[in-house]
Amino acid sequence: MTLSRREVLIGIAGMIGSSLHALSEPRMVACKARNNDPFGINGFDCREASAAGMTYRLYKSQSSGPAVLLLHELPGLYKEDIELGRRVAQSGFTAYMPLFFGKPNGKGHGAHVLWYGFSETVLPGSPFPGLRSGHTSRVAQWLNELLPSIHRECGNKGVGVIGMCLTGALPLALTGSGDVRAVMLCQPALPYFSHSGLDVSETDIKTAKDHNVDILALKFSADGKSPDARWRTLEKKFSDLNYPGGHYHELIIRSGDDLPYKKHAHSTFGEDFDDVKYVKGEPPPPTHEALQRALGFLDNRISDKPHLPDYPDQQLCPPQFLCYPENRNAAPPSIP
Q1: What span, in angstroms and rounded, lies between the C-alpha atoms of 129 and 121?
Q2: How far apart are CA 35 and CA 42, in angstroms?
Q3: pLDDT (tens digit, 0 to 9) for every residue of the chain, 336 residues total?
């Protein structure tokens, strides 16, 4: 059978198109196993993921369930962040944790915070815009190219994303593919000096609105690293009349000098998660309750058959929290 010139050209064009598509797909290879590997994490498989001209390690939990992407805070993927990833996995999700800098299992304080805070957010060419408002980190390009693969691997309704501190607002920039259905913004701390600013572009904010992504924002009430002015900006951006109601919620843990969580408390699900110890037989501390509410929030938006109680749709806001829009201006509880 003789092919026409037109059919040959169509075939060549198809092969070129398929090749270009393959080149555009993120490249993932298993991390090389080494004895006493400081980059290994028990319970997680490691891959080197290359996309958008960047390569980072990506850890995937050895669990099944819908995908939750956990973005670490300063000073890196330290032990409390990894423990959060394990809690996510144990709650019926597949946890994905990228490593943007440093080594896993480090400590969340000391010189590491200062060094990575400077090198990753302040130096020229830093990947996270610590000094710029309205500008999205280039890391978002890498994450956005990975999201379709992560979604396919888990095969559920969508993907949930958790950002913290350094990456607190970054989940807002990951909604363009439509794979992300719910995001958690935990104590967004950038930019440093523009207290009312967000380190996300207006274009990305508009995209999150257009996709009706559900948003849950969390912090400690007295946390100066995540200023109240930034939260008023979030409320303005996502609670206006042009945005369908019910998509933006806040869950704020009361803190202060006379409260169990002190004024310095910052990392809701990280370093400060166990500031109030869990006593068996007693109600869970507010951070533990907040995490269960947050996981229920994700579960009801990305699971085919949710198994956790939803927040905020099915749970009232107890007095140890400030909630928006439910009781944002409620008086603080009396202290015995």
Answers
A1: 6
A2: 13
A3: 565 665 545 555 444 444 333 345 788 898 887 667 788 999 999 999 999 999 999 999 999 999 999 999 999 999 999 999 999 999 999 999 999 999 998 776 777 788 899 999 999 999 999 999 999 999 999 999 999 999 999 987 799 999 999 999 999 999 999 999 999 999 999 999 999 999 999 999 999 999 999 999 999 999 999 999 999 999 999 987 566 557 999 999 999 999 999 999 999 999 999 999 999 899 999 999 999 999 999 999 999 889 999 988 888 899 999 998 877 655 444 433
The correct answer on CATH 1.10.287.3510 for the domain covering 38-324 is no
For residues 263 and 255, the answer to whether their CB atoms sit within 8 Å is yes
Contact 197/232 with Cβ under 8 angstroms? no
Distances (CA, A) of 146 to 41, 43, 76, 162, 310: 21, 21, 20, 15, 28
Domain ranges of the chain: 38-324
Instruction: Collapse the DSSP code of 266 into the 3-class scheme (helix H, G, I; strand E, B; otherwise coil) and give the result.
Output: coil
Write the single-letter amino acid at 308. Answer: L
Alpha-carbon distance of 292 to 263, in angstroms, equals 23
